[in-house]
Specification:
The protein is α/β, with parallel strands linked by helices. It has an 8-stranded parallel beta sheet with strand order 2-1-12-11-8-5-4-3. Strands 6-7 form a two-stranded antiparallel sheet. The longest helix is centred in the first third of the chain and has 19 residues. It is built from 11 helices and 12 strands. It has one domain: Aldolase class I (TIM Barrel, Alpha-Beta Barrel), CATH 3.20.20.70. It is about 40% helix and about 15% strand.
Length: about 350
């Protein structure tokens, strides 16, 4: 048998009892969830910025970053709604490499999934308590959701997972916005079908239960660029791309709350982290020139950390990404303030 059971991991209920969210933080999350949902339903015209490290690898550095972010968020709160990226699950193209804090609470040590779940909750709860901000994470594994449902205010489903049935059906049972990224192939109909599945009701097998969902009306699109047949990056954040998505939503007329978040990194930037401010400003420019685009685009994603660029695991630079390169803090703060001025 090729599958080897290592140790039994406690249930989500047991983990939540071990590391609970206080009543005060639960109330904070409820308030934040309602504020974020209003952007996707069109009740609020605030601009969302989902911003933070490519991967949350170190609790102290991440909480330091989110504390800095909270101070800027307060300055721009009338126009910009900040959602910290605290990404603890990292998809890997070949399956090899650092898969995030869930797998390795210490990036230089072996996998420890139970320790990873504890480390994730501890970091998220600390960030919430210190800053008043609730965060976004990527759903790499659909069965992670019960461990995270009381702490996350936004979930992204990545380019490699967006066509997976279990991810789509799990998204339909969530009560926070779920962003469906376009696949690496760039086929936007895959993303649209994923949104449709996420907004629909389903019955399926989940965590050993026959499970029924209500559908998630806040399921929406994320444009993150793509790859051509030669493995070269193709962007999809330009005016024409956003108009195409507007037209596509008209064809998928069963979808409610049409919405798009644009990822300024990944294949949209060709992983050139320093291009993210330019890309964000171009998106804002497109919004000023089209009411349809302004109505559709609800915000952007930016990969940002304390230090510019990235490093290898073990190099030990505080607040520097160990996965994709990120925009450093000074440039990130400047970008947030510029976005608020341009809106």
């Amino acid at each position: 048998m090729a599958l080897h059971q290592i140790k039994k991991v406690p249930t989500a209920e047991e983990i939540r009892e071990e590391l609970p969210v206080s009543n005060a933080l639960a109330a904070l999350k409820k308030e934040r969830d309602e504020e974020i949902a209003k952007v996707f339903t069109g009740e609020s015209d605030k601009f969302i910025m989902i911003i933070g490290p490519c991967s949350a690898d170190n609790e102290d550095a991440v909480c330091d970053y989110v504390n800095r972010l909270a101070k800027v968020a307060e300055k721009v709160k009338d126009k910009v709604l900040i959602i910290p990226r605290i990404y603890t699950n990292k998809p890997r193209t070949t399956g090899a490499g650092y898969k995030g804090m869930l797998h390795q609470p210490d990036p230089e040590s072996k996998s420890d999934l139970y320790g990873g779940i504890i480390a994730i909750r501890k970091m998220h709860i600390r960030a919430m308590a210190e800053t008043g901000l609730t965060a976004a994470d990527e759903m790499l594994y659909s069965e992670n959701w019960p461990y995270m449902e009381d702490i996350l205010s936004y979930v992204a489903i990545g380019a490699r997972s967006v066509e997976d049935q279990q991810h789509r059906l799990t998204a339909s049972g969530m009560d926070v916005p779920v962003g469906m990224k376009n696949p690496t192939s760039g086929d936007l109909t895959v993303m649209m079908n994923s949104c449709l599945a996420g907004q629909s009701r389903h019955t399926f097998l989940f965590s050993g239960w026959e499970t029924k969902t209500d559908g998630n009306p806040l399921t929406h699109c994320i444009l993150r660029g793509a790859l051509n047949k030669h493995g070269q990056s193709i962007s999809n954040y330009h005016y024409e791309d956003l108009m195409q998505l507007t037209d596509l939503y008209a064809q998928f007329d069963k979808l409610i709350n049409p919405a798009c978040i644009v990822d300024a990194n990944h294949n949209n930037s060709g992983k050139k982290w320093d291009q993210q401010p330019r890309i964000v400003k171009e998106i804002l420019h497109s919004m000023r020139h089209s009411e349809d685009i302004k109505k559709l685009v609800k915000g952007v994603m930016v990969e940002s950390y304390i230090e510019n660029g990235c490093q290898k695991i073990g190099e030990g630079v505080y607040g520097k990404s160990i996965t994709d390169p990120c925009l450093g803090w000074e440039l990130s703060e400047k970008l947030i303030l510029e976005v608020a001025d341009l809106l």
